[in-house]
TrEMBL record:
This is Carboxypeptidase. The chain crosses the membrane at residues 431-452. GO terms for molecular function: serine-type carboxypeptidase activity. One of its GO terms (biological process) is proteolysis. Its EC number is 3.4.16.-. It is an enzyme of class 3 (hydrolase). It comes from the Eukaryota. The keyword Membrane applies. It comes from Thraustotheca clavata. Belongs to the peptidase S10 family. Keywords: Carboxypeptidase, Hydrolase, Membrane, Protease, Transmembrane, Transmembrane helix. The keyword Secreted does not apply.
Length: 466
């Protein structure tokens, strides 16, 4: 914990050192959104070095973002995760959250002098689309001593409630999730201004409200994962603690993050021995939740973070906005539209970008001091569903394209299937499955031969001479 001098609240953080050179590599702050959700979700279900397996032991994530960066996962604001206490309702707003995060950074850099003046980046996703522009603007307004802010990157960022919200049914219709009849009816009864008010729960008309209900009903979002519309949902019953199947089954997507990862993480972080080991229960056992709905419900959200970009863009900081294109909650359409509102000059026009596996990984466009990038096939949690491309994108952002193209990246069996690499180059664990199968087959043959010879020997001893 870092205890804030201003009010004594305890801010829980998890610092993961770089696997490369922690004494010189950049320092990165990661923030999840909500508002009210824990950044440990980013650590354990997206981009950290560990994943919780179905038996509640830890496995390694070969696509961890701390390969070449020191990363701080901060649970913010207080009341989220292990950070405490739950605040009064008038303290849950973006101005107060920014001030407390700013204060945390001030204390952090005093506590860890070895990170002072190191290249410093702020990253996050979702409602961090508000958290981060507010915090970056605050750091530009009053720079912290010894904090060498270089830039920020935000994934699928909720930024402007009207622009982001009004793109929802454009996305759902374009992805075959609602009928053309309902889509046309929403266009008719929910003009932009009315739709924006409806989605903000501020003065919706009955006609628009009814059409929105029809639209959400058709999309049946409760039966899918709207954060990754092509992904599977976790179907484990609440009382089932672990999978009965072997836990080395690879998810349908690349990497090691499966559909029940959040469930395993929650159970793991509520183990008493884990909380003791990570210094999360200084006084008593703490019930940890991925998102604290009390915080979410109390939080007074701003309608738009766009005004903060006026200061940020002119500062010359390196900035990247990226969008997984299978996210229906904060979709790429709304993001492109609010970026267009910034009226930035295009420095490098729209083009495809490719990952280290030689596959088309998405599309990108560079503006003055801002880059917009899509990640093909990725959901809201980009690093969870496209881990290789997310890692490559992140390291190229931090180190630059020229340098990141000299780095070595993990290979897997899918690259063998596409012909990108030979079988001998794969770092996938699939060879273990094949080896295990071969060993089992050999053992079965040996056992069969031994049993056969034993039976024949007994039969021979049982013969009686005539």
């Amino acid at each position: 914990y870092v205890t804030l001098p201003s009010n004594g609240q305890n801010m829980f953080y998890w610092l993961v050192e770089s696997q490369n050179n922690p004494s010189t590599d950049p320092i990165v702050l990661w923030l999840n959104g909500g508002p009210g959700c824990s950044s440990l979700g980013g650590l354990f279900t997206e981009l950290g070095p560990f994943v919780v397996k179905s038996d509640l032991t830890l496995g390694r994530n070969p696509y961890s973002w701390n390969r070449k960066a020191n990363i701080v996962f901060l649970e913010s604001p207080a009341g989220v995760g292990y950070s405490s206490p739950l605040l009064s309702d008038d303290e849950y707003n973006d101005v107060t959250t920014t001030e407390r995060a700013y204060e945390f950074l001030s204390e952090f850099f005093q506590l860890y002098e070895n990170y002072q003046n190191r290249d410093f980046f702020i990253t996050g996703e979702s409602y961090a689309g508000v958290y981060i522009p507010f915090l970056v603007a605050r750091l530009l307004e009053q720079p912290l001593k010894n904090a060498n802010l270089k830039g920020f990157a935000i994934g699928n960022p909720f930024t402007d409630s009207a622009i982001d919200g009004t793109s929802t049914f454009d996305y759902l219709y374009s992805h075959a999730m609602v009928s053309i009849e309902v889509y046309d009816s929403i266009q008719k009864h929910c003009p932009y201004d009315i739709l924006a008010m409806c989605l903000a729960s501020r003065g919706c008309t009955n006609e628009c409200a009814m059409e929105l209900v029809r639209g959400y009903s058709e999309a049946n979002e409760v039966a899918l994962n709207p954060y990754n519309i092509y992904g599977d949902v976790c179907l484990l019953p609440p009382d089932q603690s672990v999978l009965v199947a072997p836990h080395n089954i690879r998810p349908l997507n690349r990497g090691v993050i499966g559909p029940c990862q959040s469930k395993f993480m929650t159970m793991y972080l509520n183990l008493a021995q884990v909380q003791e080991a990570i210094h999360a229960n200084a006084s008593s056992s703490t019930e940890w939740a991925n998102c604290n709905m009390d915080v979410t419900n109390l939080y007074d959200r701003v309608l738009s973070a766009l005004p903060k970009y006026q200061t940020i863009i002119t500062s010359g900081l390196k900035s990247m906005i990226y969008s997984g294109d299978t996210d229906a909650v904060v979709n790429f359409m709304g993001t492109e539209r609010w970026i267009a509102r910034l009226n930035l000059s295009i420095e490098s026009p729209w083009k495809a970008w490719f990952g280290p596996d030689k596959q088309l990984a998405g599309y990108t466009q560079e503006y003055t001091n801002l880059t917009f990038t899509t990640v093909k096939g990725a959901g809201h949690m980009v690093a969870a569903t496209r881990p290789l491309h997310a890692l490559y994108m992140f390291e190229c952002f931090i180190y630059g394209n020229k340098l990141c193209n000299t780095f070595t990246y993990p290979h897997d069996d899918l690259e063998v299937l596409t012909g990108a690499i030979g079988p001998e180059s794969s770092s996938s664990n699939d060879w273990q499955y094949y080896l295990t199968g071969a060993i089992v087959l050999v053992l079965a043959v040996v056992i069969a031969v031994v049993v056969f010879r034993y039976i024949k020997a007994r039969q021979k001893r049982a013969y009686v001479a005539v």
